[in-house]
Design brief:
Blueprint (H helix, E strand, L loop, with lengths): L7 E5 L8 E5 L2 E7 L5 E5 L13 E3 L2 E3 L6 E2 L5 E3 L16 E7 L2 E5 L19 E10 L3 H9 L4 H4 L16 E4 L4 E10 L10 E11 L2 E7 L12 E10 L2 E10 L6 H21 L19 H13 L7
Antiparallel strand pairs: 1-10, 2-3, 3-4, 4-9, 5-6, 6-7, 7-8, 9-10, 11-17, 12-13, 13-14, 14-15, 15-16, 16-17
Length: 324
C-alpha cells in the first residue's frame, strides 16, 4: 500500500513529553515517546511479550516500560530489561517493531514503511514575518480524501459558510487555472466574494487564493495580498494536515501562518474552529464516505476542476485508503 511509504501527522509534538502517547495511523496502533535525549520514538503499540498496550506504560530511565511485566525497550525497539530475570540479556530478536518518525510544523510525523517520499511542503513555515498557530485536532467521521476535497472547494462557501466565507447573493465561481505539480495539484486565480475572510474583516471583499495539494492527504491555501494592503507581499497560508485513522475516519489539524500579531492564539483558533465545525456535519453526511475516483460515480461541473484534478492525482498515485 503506497500510503504506508508516505509521511503522515499523528499527534501534536508538545503532547509527547515525559509519558507515552497512543496514536493511530492507517489502522495501525502506535505508541509515541521520547528517549533520554528527547528524541522521538514511534513503536507498534503492542508488547511482543504478552500483547499489552505499551502506551499504558511509562518511560523509565530513558526506556519504554511495558505496564504488564515491566519489560523495557530502548530507542529503536530493542528489549533491554526483563525484570523477572535480572541477569538475563535479551537477544536481538526480542524487540518491538519501530517506525520512522520526525517532528515538523508542530506535529509528529510517522512513516510505516521505508520509501522515497518527503514531508509535505508548507512554504510559509520559513517566513519569519508570519506567526504560526496550530488548530485541532478534530476527529471526523469522514475519509481523508473527502476532507481534502472539501478544503479545495469554493462553491460551497455561500451555503455552508454563509455570512462568513460566502454569501447566497454571490455564489458564482470565476474560471481558475489548474495544473499538475511534482507533488500534487495547484489551482491559481481562485476568487471568492467573502463577508468575513478573516478575524478582522469589516466589509465584504473579493479574496484571491491559490490552493495546492502537496501530498495525498495534505493541502495548503495561500491568500494573495489585496491591492493596497498594509501586508502586501506577505502571503498568509493555512495548511491542512490529515492523519488517516481508518478508511472512513480521520484526525485533522490546521496550521495557520498569518500576519496577525494582535489577536491571541485562542482568537485565531476560534475563528478557524467556527469555519471547520460548519463543514464537519456536512462532511460526515456524505455517502459514500470514501471518495469515488471513478469520474462517473458522482456528477461534476466546471467549478469542480480542482477536486476533479485531485481525484485524478490520487488515482495516478495508486492511493487506495479512503477512496473507492
Amino acid at each position: 500500500m503506497i500510503e504506508k511509504t508516505q509521511w503522515h501527522p499523528v499527534a501534536q509534538a508538545y503532547e509527547v513529553a515525559d509519558k507515552p502517547v497512543s496514536a493511530q495511523l492507517l489502522e495501525q496502533a502506535l505508541v509515541l515517546w521520547r528517549d533520554a535525549d528527547g528524541r522521538l520514538q514511534a513503536f507498534w503499540d503492542r508488547c511482543p511479550h504478552r500483547g499489552a498496550r505499551l502506551s499504558m506504560g511509562r518511560v523509565e530511565n530513558g526506556h519504554l516500560e511495558c505496564p504488564y511485566h515491566g519489560w523495557q525497550f530502548a530507542s529503536g525497539g530493542q528489549c533491554v530489561k526483563v525484570p523477572a530475570l535480572p541477569e538475563f540479556t535479551p537477544p536481538v530478536r526480542q524487540c518491538v517493531k519501530s517506525f520512522e518518525v520526525q517532528e515538523a510544523y508542530g506535529l509528529v510525523w510517522v512513516r510505516l514503511e521505508p520509501g522515497e517520499s518527503r514531508l509535505p511542503v508548507f512554504a510559509a513555515e520559513t517566513d519569519a514575518h508570519l506567526r504560526k498557530v496550530n488548530c485541532g485536532p478534530y476527529d471526523v467521521a469522514a475519509s481523508a480524501p473527502r476532507i481534502i476535497e472539501n478544503f479545495l472547494d469554493m462553491s460551497h462557501f455561500g451555503f455552508v459558510h454563509e455570512g462568513w466565507l460566502g454569501s447566497r447573493d454571490a455564489t458564482a465561481i470565476a474560471a481558475y487555472e489548474v495544473e499538475a505539480t511534482a507533488s500534487g495539484v495547484l489551482a491559481t486565480g481562485c476568487k471568492a466574494v467573502q463577508p468575513q475572510s478573516n478575524l478582522h474583516s469589516t466589509q465584504v471583499a473579493e479574496v484571491e487564493y491559490t490552493y495546492e495539494v502537496t501530498a495525498a492527504y495534505t493541502a495548503v491555501l495561500t491568500k494573495i495580498p489585496e491591492e493596497g494592503s498594509s501586508k502586501q507581499g506577505w502571503r498568509e497560508q493555512i495548511g491542512l494536515f490529515i492523519c488517516p485513522l481508518t478508511p472512513e475516519t480521520s484526525r485533522v489539524w490546521f496550521r495557520l501562518a498569518v500576519a496577525d500579531f494582535e489577536s491571541s492564539d485562542e482568537q485565531l483558533k476560534s475563528f478557524q474552529h467556527t469555519i471547520f465545525v460548519q463543514d464537519q456535519p456536512v462532511l460526515e453526511s456524505q455517502l459514500p464516505k470514501a471518495l469515488p475516483l471513478d469520474p462517473r460515480a458522482e456528477m461534476h461541473s466546471a467549478a469542480d476542476r480542482m477536486s476533479s484534478a485531485y481525484r485524478r492525482f490520487l488515482k495516478a498515485q495508486g492511493i487506495t485508503f479512503g477512496v473507492c
